[in-house]
Amino acid sequence: MRRYLARKLLIYLLTFFVAVTIDWAIPRLMPGDPISGLISRLQADPTAAQEMHGYFTKSFGLDEPLWRQYLNFWAGLAHGDLGPSIAYVGSSVSGLIRAAIPYTLALLVPAIVLSYIAGNRVGALAARRKVLDNTALPAAYLLTATPYMFLALMLAYFFAFRWQVFPVSGAYDFSLQPEWSVEFVRSFVVHWFLPFLTLFLVSFGGWAIGMRNLIIYELEADYANYLQALGAPNRLVRKYAYRNAVLPQMSGLALALGAVVGGALVTEIVFGYPGVGTLIITAIQNRDYFLLQGIFLFIILGVLIANFVVDIAYVIVDPRTRTGLQGS
Amino acid sequence: MSSKSARRVVGLGLVVAVAAALVASLATAGSGSAPQAVLAVPRGDTLYTSGKQWGPYTNFNPLKPDYNTGTVGLVYETLFRYDPLKDTFIPWLASNGKWVGRNYVVTVRKGVKWSDGAPLTAADVKFTFETQKYEGAQYGTMWKTGLQRVTTRGRTVTFHFRGVPNYQEWDSNRYTVPIVPMHIWKGYSEKEIVSGNTANARKLIGTGPFVYGGGIGGSQTLQYNRRDGWWATKAFGLKMPMKYIVDIHNTSNTASLQNFLQSKIDLSNNFFPGIDRYVGGKVATYYRKAPYMLAANTAWMVPNTTKRPLSDVVFRRALAESINVNRIVVADYANIVSKANPTGLLPTWNKWIDQAQVKKLGFTYNIAKAKARLAAAGYRDRNGDGYVEDKDGSSINLRLIVPKGWSDWETAIQIIADSAKDAGIKISPAYPDFNGLVEERNTGKFELVINNEKQIGNTPYTYYDYMFRLPLLDQQTVSNFQRFSSPKAWALTTQLNKIKSTDVAKAKKIHSQIQKIMLEQLPVIPLWYNGMWAQYNTSVWKNFPSANGNQATPSTWNGYLNMTGIDALAKLKKK
To answer: How far is B528 from chain A (nearest CA, A)?
Structure first.
């Protein structure tokens, strides 16, 4: 077990190192100089603009050779410093991300967990059951094939714009400021629901289909036939099938995380949700190297940690891996 | 399907449905007559604004130009304000100001107090202007072009200049440099003043009508609370009718439009294409008819004059004559913008435009003329592809760029390409992203670009500076992107800078000379006036600025509150 974990950890560290290096490099491969864009936005007068260009290039450390910028980046990272933001001059990247993360997590975590549970349940029920299979399955296919952006727009159009049941955008009412109060929480939940539903529905469809197919596969396995031949009740057979089918779904969860995070970013933009997704757009538009790096770093870390958790959970759920590890 | 599992599915469905209904009921409860909690600002006392801020509210530094909505105007104030509609300066924190020889002398207004109770002093003014000596400071130009020192005596502040002052530029400084409290700001480092956010909520001490109410950092709104005892109530009888101003940061113009139409935003300075369809009823604009909005800046087509054939003035003129701007105004903008004068000068600068000269020298849309002009100069279609070739026979295909995602401009350049085609000029529209465009533009790699960065202000000097500034550098960061070299035009521009705007006759003469070069040489091609986008939802507030009423700049964009944006707010009335 310890060796298994150590090996996994090493792989994760390696992945982290490579991912972070790519993360550092990608923004710098984009065309255009962020400082020129900044000066252009700031609309300084011509005499001041020349000096400001030099001043800002220096203050962001962009006048240094690339290799040094790369080392500075790791050095900063070791101190938990993600650098200054270029789009929001004067703000630190960590501060900006810290402010946005709660919103993104509030969407992501419930959407992932609930859609996984509900999707698997419904998929398992639908397998080999004519009526349900003929109704739930097409719906699930439709949902999982829907791009996040499209579903989000449809929900926003009908529920927020046409029928005005839910608010169009934002994370809480304009008359409020974030605070722990009943009023704020109520407003937050109302604003949270549509973006959450978008993420939930799309993932839900995927899990349901996956589970349905796996159950059918398991029900055709020898052990299922054998159980049935022994006269075991249908429910018991399905229970065993479900247990076995959950395993591939779990690895699927680890794989799907990246896509869900991507979906959350897009959904946030549609609903004007003040999370990381909205921040990323500003960062891209302004060539904000540091902010982009910071956000990607957050995504990399999130996906890696979640994968690690799934890995461990897998060991717990599947006794075979445990025996394999201990060397039976 | 067994009845049991069917029941389970139904049960699950029910749970989801109930949850949805519950959340929905919560939603409707809020929009209905539910009692307001203490911390939510009451709708009737609150003015909701949007359209300025994109992204979180982080920068409360008034001396850094991308400051949050209202930082200058609502919290910090300037010595003067400028009314572009009447072309007058309004003494504000200065009770008066005048030139005494080459010194500019202002008297700091009596009875102005910072929101922490300390009085505004001449030392605050001196301190503020002196911070602009720091490297990288936004208003640093004045110290490099003549301002020598600032001295104070009692309430009087004297700005000493060496040589003839740059009057035109100084006039801009008079109403754009926000005064900060020395007793707080002397604690800030040079770096914090030049590029920091000064976002300590307890230190946001200004002289203005509002104080900070909440929203620093991650919030989607910025709240200001009305301050009692604002000096202008006594001095000018101005009183803010709203207790709160809540500014909403934009995520997209579409989301803002929906919120605006649902009466969640009162004053929107977003760009809403198609807003003309909503005007009337509860939606109002500055003009009741086209162009609906005041003009805020000029959109130009900037030709790279170092490249063939754009280096040829005859070709530039033919190009200008081949563009059907009216089609852009009607088809692209549905009349919410208007066609620009051939000088490109904004309507508020009409008194400086030599109209007789414009009539004589200005270009007009005329395909036949453009064609004839091209033919006469030797630009002919030699290979029969419908487009003219350069004099030496090489083909012409001009790349015209606008930033990706600026949909109104994307449409505009398609219209331009279509329209130039009629005269035989081939233009290929392209849409690099903003920073890519800036790179191409600043380094002179581009061929044609649309630009509108110079905003309305007290003098067309800024426009001339934009067109003619010399010397040309490797990187042209904010002006003369076209790299047009006319020492004469630049000499005239610098000469104009040294003439007082009050010296109208003398100034007019130079304006006219500069415009002559502009009209004959076409260093940039003026297209249309972009609007000072402002839409009012009148369900909660009324008496918004309009052409035949409260005439003021209806904008919360940076730089507009210190024009007459403050008057616009103060004259609003509860419905």
So the answer is: 20
pLDDT at B34: 36
- Whether the CB-CB separation of B469 and B479 falls below 8 Å is answered with yes
Shortest Cα distance, chain B CAs vs residue A164, angstroms: 9
The minimal CB distance from B1 to the residues A130, A176, A285 is found for: A130
d(CA A60, CA A84): 7
Letter string b/e over residues B406-431, b meaning 16 or more CB atoms within 10 A of that residue's CB: bebbbbbbebbbebbeebbbbbebbb
- The closest of A61, A94, A57 to A77, measured between CA atoms, is A94
Nearest residue in chain B measured CA to CA from A280: B55
Number of H helices, E strands in chain B: 18, 23
pLDDT of residue B25: 46
A41 touches chain B (CB under 8 A): yes
Measured CA to CA, the distance from residue A88 to residue A300 in angstroms comes to 23
> What contacts B415, CB < 8 A, 6 or more positions away?
B324, B327, B328, B331, B332
CA distance B297 to B271: 14
Tell which residue, B38, B568, B92, has the closest CA to residue A182: B38
Inter-chain residue contact B55 with A88, CB threshold 8 Å: yes
Q: Are B176 and B119 in contact (CB under 8 A)?
A: no
- Measured from the Cβ of residue A113, the count of other Cβ atoms closer than 10 Å reads 12
Distances (CA, A) of B168 to B151, B165, B306, B457, B463: 22, 9, 30, 11, 12
CA dihedral A109, A112, A114, A116 (to 10 degrees): -150
A285 at B interface, C-beta within 8 A = yes
Q: Considering the entire predicted model, what is its pTM?
A: 0.89
Tell me the HSE value of B160 on the side-chain side, using a 13 A CA sphere: 5
The amino acid occupying position B211 is V
ipTM computed for the complex? 0.85
What count of other Cβ atoms lies within 10 Å of the Cβ of residue A230?
9
Q: Shortest CA distance to B469 belongs to which of B508, B514, B502?
A: B514
pLDDT at residue B8, rounded to an integer: 56
For residue B503, the SS3 value is coil
Q: Does B251 touch chain A (CB under 8 A)?
A: yes
pLDDT tens profile A88-120: 888 899 999 988 888 999 999 899 999 999 999
Measured between alpha carbons, how far is B203 from B208 in angstroms, rounded to an integer? 14
**Contact indicator for B275, B258 with CB cutoff of 8 Å:** no
**8 A C-beta contact, residue B507 and residue B352:** yes
DSSP state of A157: I
Question: For B190-197, what is the mean pLDDT?
Answer: 92
From A105-119, B4-18, B221-235, B385-399, the region with the lowest mean pLDDT: B4-18
Give B108's strand partners.
B94
At B37 the pLDDT is 38
Distances (CA, A) of B367 to A60, A293, B69, B276, B372: 50, 51, 45, 30, 9
| Whole-angstrom distance, CA of residue B276 vs CA of residue B254 | 15
Q: pLDDT class for B52, splitting at 50, 70, 90?
A: very high
